[in-house]
């Protein structure tokens, strides 16, 4: 039995690692021990050291319940702060000095990285995602080299590894795996039990998701494919490289049933197909989706997840995961209980040391369950919920026909995603949306690519088309502007790329507009006099470009800076902007060069040969966003509206994707003290 570690780098993402979930299934089939981790890798090391430390401590003095002291001991191992030892209350132990010596030893193992001399894992898999996560991915790989017994058993795969494989090998010395694990025996060619297993065809191991603290936004959903690959060869897309062969139908029912049996029924169906409408078997696919229980009006009642966790604990399937899940489920029920029932339930948890996860054991959970089984079943949530299907990667409007749209209307599709990658698709896109409305599909969504070969006005027009369709057809279209980043080369390794027709200021302006709404451009209500779109992006192209040139702080805190009874400098900027652009075109060109580069430090402005008028105008751009307290009531109301929308609307929660603010800006804002964020109106007045 091998010790297998699955790692996803510690970046934020909405989908669980499907590849690792299949690899987990594969290794369990071979009888290997599997662990999944996402987070600070130092914490992983601490966890592993704790296991060895616990064995040693029990050997020294087994009269002490060391589990209840787990958090304290881990903290000491990590910091070697001797003051922490007093919290262990070791005075009554005859072996106090020996215990302290042992803890000191483990703290040294961690701090001096002695653990790297005796790695525990026989094989480590690191998945990779977007290429702009290059830095954290490389750091993760380098750290994992210290944890694997044989560097040849460190396997790196996924999107970044497939697209930048040569660069990644040069950087790390690890030869990454490219593409899919779609052939038998790829990982263990010498193992007779593995030679017939095609990993890409295996069901997902959902249990690994409960092993970590990180919570993926997508919940209670089946993740699967009905097709693979794409018939298109779009130059901005990685699919032709990652999945070069189009497969018009993937066998899904058996995997679906396996997942349902092991992990329980899931509410929604998220299909990750890259171009499902291209399949000549699409009508069959819809029938199969309906057979899986996802038909129009289908409802879902949550199965007894605690019972499922208990069955898996009894069978020994991933004890670490199902212990964590059982503990969470047990405590989620507590607020629903009253009086005597609550006391009885609490007593059972207390008697079996289940009040804190550090003291929780598999044996304690299995012993407690028969005593609270009836209470749990009676009071758990059992209200029916509607089910939804989401072709999450979008559908291709060029394949839409009346027959296809009518067939899609037979399943609870929410939202229907129709790609609108460039303005040249306008005719087909509008026709597809109108067909959707005709067949009662009222909620739509799309990712709108920008910063590629498009122009800013193309983005504006596509967003406006959606607004107009919402009003005309009385439907809801949620748009997600998505910034293009190259697939290859140095520019793929970060998020700073600017397209031919774009500049850094334009991109920052779009990101600032979307900051409040977490990247969503909301649908227009036909009864609204002024839509969010017009307020955010302008009533016409002239206003749109005016907003693109507006100082970022004025965009985000628009009402604070617009109104005369507050700070009121947006009108000042606007008048100066119009005057400079109209009456002093040569000076406007000087100002544009600095504005387009979006660097407004006093050093840059001071060191650049500029006229007094231009320098005076650029003072508006030197107020950093982090210096403003978010007290703008209009900002707060709009943000609250979208936070509520995302919280309450299942399909928004399932599909949340955005890249509206760089990590550097977020870090800067967090590091700025509350006091320094407050605007001194008098100071700004003198500055302006």
From TrEMBL:
UniProt keyword Thylakoid, yes or no: no
Cofactor (UniProt): [4Fe-4S] cluster
Keyword ATP-binding among record annotations: no
Annotated keywords: Iron, Iron-sulfur, Metal-binding, S-adenosyl-L-methionine
Protein name: Radical SAM superfamily enzyme YgiQ, UPF0313 family
Organism of origin: Runella salmonicolor
């Amino acid at each position: 039995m091998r010790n297998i570690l699955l790692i996803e780098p510690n970046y934020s993402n909405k989908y669980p690692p499907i590849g690792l979930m299949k690899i987990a299934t594969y290794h369990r089939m071979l009888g290997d021990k599997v662990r999944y981790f996402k987070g600070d890798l130092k914490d992983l090391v601490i966890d592993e050291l704790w296991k060895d430390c616990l064995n040693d401590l029990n050997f020294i003095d087994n009269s002490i319940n060391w589990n209840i002291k787990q958090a304290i001991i881990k903290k000491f191992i990590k910091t070697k702060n001797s003051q922490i030892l007093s919290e262990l209350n070791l005075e009554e132990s005859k072996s106090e000095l020996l215990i302290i010596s042992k803890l000191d030893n483990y703290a040294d193992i961690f701090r001096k990285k002695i653990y790297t001399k005796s790695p525990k894992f026989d094989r480590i898999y690191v998945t990779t995602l977007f290429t702009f996560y290059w830095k954290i991915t490389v750091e993760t790989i380098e750290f994992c080299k210290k944890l694997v017994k044989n560097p040849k058993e460190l396997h790196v795969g996924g999107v970044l590894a497939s697209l930048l494989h040569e660069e990644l090998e040069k950087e790390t010395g690890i030869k990454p795996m490219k593409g899919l694990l779609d052939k038998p025996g790829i990982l263990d060619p010498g193992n007779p039990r593995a030679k017939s297993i095609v990993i890409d065809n295996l069901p997902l191991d959902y249990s690994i998701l409960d092993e970590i603290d990180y919570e993926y936004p997508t919940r209670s959903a089946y993740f699967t494919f009905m097709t693979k690959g794409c018939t298109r060869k779009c130059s901005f897309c990685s699919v032709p490289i990652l999945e070069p062969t189009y497969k018009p139908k993937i066998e899904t029912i058996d995997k679906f049933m396996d997942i349902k049996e092991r992990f329980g029924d899931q509410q929604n169906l998220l299909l990750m197909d890259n171009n499902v409408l291209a399949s000549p078997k699409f009508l069959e696919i819809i029938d199969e989706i309906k057979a899986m229980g996802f038909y129009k009006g289908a409802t879902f009642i949550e199965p007894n997840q605690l019972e499922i966790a208990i069955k898996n604990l009894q069978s020994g399937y991933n004890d670490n995961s199902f212990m964590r899940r059982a503990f969470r489920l047990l405590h989620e029920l507590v607020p629903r209980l009253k009086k005597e029932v609550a006391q009885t339930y609490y007593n059972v948890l207390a008697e079996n040391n289940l009040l804190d996860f550090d003291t929780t054991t598999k044996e304690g959970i299995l012993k407690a369950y028969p005593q609270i089984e009836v209470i749990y079943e009676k009071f758990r949530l059992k209200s029916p919920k509607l089910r939804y299907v989401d072709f999450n990667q979008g559908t291709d409007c060029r394949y839409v026909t009346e027959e296809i749209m009518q067939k899609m209307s037979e399943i609870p599709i929410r939202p229907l995603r129709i790609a609108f990658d460039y303005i040249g698709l306008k005719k087909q896109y509008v026709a597809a949306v109108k067909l959707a409305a005709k067949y009662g599909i009222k909620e739509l969504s799309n990712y709108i690519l920008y910063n590629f070969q498009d122009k800013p006005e193309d983005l504006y027009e596509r967003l406006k088309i959606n607004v107009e369709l919402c009003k005309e057809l009385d439907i809801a279209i949620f748009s997600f502007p998505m910034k293009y980043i190259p697939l290859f080369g140095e520019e793929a390794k970060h998020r700073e790329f600017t397209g031919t027709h774009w500049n850094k200021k334009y991109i920052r302006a779009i990101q600032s507009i979307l900051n409040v709404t977490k990247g969503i451009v909301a649908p227009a209500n036909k009864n609204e006099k002024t839509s969010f779109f017009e307020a955010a992006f302008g009533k016409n192209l002239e206003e749109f470009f005016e907003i693109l040139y507006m100082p970022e702080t004025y965009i985000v805190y628009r009402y604070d800076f617009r109104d005369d009874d507050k700070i009121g400098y947006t009108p000042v900027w606007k008048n100066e902007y119009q005057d400079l652009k109209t009456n002093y075109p040569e000076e406007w060109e000087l100002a544009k060069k600095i504005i387009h580069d979006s660097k407004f430090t006093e050093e840059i402005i001071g060191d650049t040969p500029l006229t007094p008028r231009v320098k005076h105008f650029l003072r508006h751009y030197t107020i950093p966003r982090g210096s403003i307290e978010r007290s703008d009531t209009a900002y707060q109301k709009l943000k609250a509206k979208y936070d509520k929308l995302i919280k309450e609307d299942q399909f928004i929660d399932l599909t949340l994707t955005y890249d509206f603010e760089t990590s550097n800006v977020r870090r800067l804002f967090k590091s700025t003290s509350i006091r320094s964020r407050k605007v001194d109106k008098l100071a700004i007045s003198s500055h302006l």
